Each structure stands twice: as C-alpha cells, then as structure tokens.
C-alpha cells in the first residue's frame, strides 16, 4: 500500500534494523493519501499480533471507497501509460523519413532498430540447438540411468532452458 501510494519502498535502504523496528516515514505534508495513513501504520506494526488482518483491511478500504464515492464494482478508468508507448514509435517514424535524407544519421537509428530483430532471432537459434542436446543425452544417459526416470527429465530440462532463454529474449524485445 505504501508503495502504491508513494511509488517508493517504505524501507528504501533495506536495512534489517529499520525493517524489524518498522522505522519508516510517511512523506510529510501528504494530503492526497491521508485516508490510507492508518492502513499503512496498521500493516507495518512491529508486533504481528497488532497488525491489521486482511478482513480489517478490506472493511476499511470499503469504508474509504464509500466516503469517496467510489463504486468498487465499476471498471477502473486508467490513463497515462498509453501516451508513453505512443511517443516511442512516433520518434522512430519521424527519424525514418529524416534519415532518408541523411544516410549518416540513418546508421545510428538502424543500429537502434536491429537490436529488436536480434532479440527475436534468439528463439530461432534454440531449435538448431535442440538437435545437439538430442546427441548429448545418450552420454548423459549413462550417469542418469542409475537414477531411472532421470533421462526424460534431463532432456526436458534442456528444452525448457532453451524455451526460457528464448522467452526472455522475446520479452526483452517487447520491452524495448
């Protein structure tokens, strides 16, 4: 709740003593989240027996929503993040036409665009890397054969690790 309100961790330095002693500070002069201050204090009590229960939190949040006139059954109207994602493609498109006139500046922008395609190909290299693990399990079968059903687990783990690596590259490409 603290993180949602203030966009920072209540114990930014992660000092164990600060966490154990619940030594945190609510930003002074905060009027926007004044209703949530008791909830934050109730959740960050040193003694676990004194902390708010989930049902207490839900009851208090329902009371806050009633006083603020918020219907909890309506969908949320979130705004703001779409602007960030639309601003990134627009400069890339603007740089494309201007780069046609200047080939020297097109090189840096071209270098910025290929990292995403290079991140997409890592999922393609794993299929070629799959046949070598097929040849590698027979040597691994001898040590694994003592374990019995470990042979399937060994081959599967290689497959899952390549899928995991490819998915990581894919998500990095999406992020960029």
Automatic annotation (TrEMBL):
GO terms for biological process: positive regulation of Notch signaling pathway; regulation of clathrin-dependent endocytosis. Residues 145-158, 165-176 have a biased composition (Gly residues). Residues 81-176 are annotated as: Disordered. The keyword DNA damage does not apply. GO terms for cellular component: cytoplasm. The keyword Transport does not apply. Keywords: Nucleotide-binding. Residues 114-141 have a biased composition (Pro residues). InterPro entries: Kinase-like_dom_sf. Residues 95-110 have a biased composition (Polar residues). It comes from the Eukaryota. One of its GO terms (molecular function) is protein serine/threonine kinase activity. This is Protein kinase domain-containing protein.
């Amino acid at each position: 709740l603290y993180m949602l309100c203030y966009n920072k961790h209540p114990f930014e330095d992660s000092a164990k003593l600060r966490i154990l002693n619940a030594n945190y500070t609510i930003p002074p002069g905060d009027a926007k989240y004044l209703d949530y201050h008791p909830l934050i204090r109730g959740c960050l009590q040193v003694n676990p027996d004194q902390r708010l229960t989930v049902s207490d939190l839900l009851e208090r949040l329902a009371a806050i929503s009633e006083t603020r006139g918020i219907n909890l059954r309506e969908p949320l109207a979130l705004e703001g993040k779409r602007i960030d994602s639309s601003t990134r493609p627009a400069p890339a498109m603007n740089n494309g036409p201007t780069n046609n006139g200047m080939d020297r500046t097109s090189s840096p922008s071209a270098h910025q665009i290929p990292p995403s395609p290079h991140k997409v190909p890592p999922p393609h290299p794993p299929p070629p890397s799959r046949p070598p693990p097929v040849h590698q399990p027979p040597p691994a079968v001898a040590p694994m054969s003592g374990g019995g059903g470990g042979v399937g687990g060994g081959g599967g783990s290689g497959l899952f690790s390549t899928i995991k690596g490819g998915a990581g590259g894919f998500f990095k490409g999406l992020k960029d």
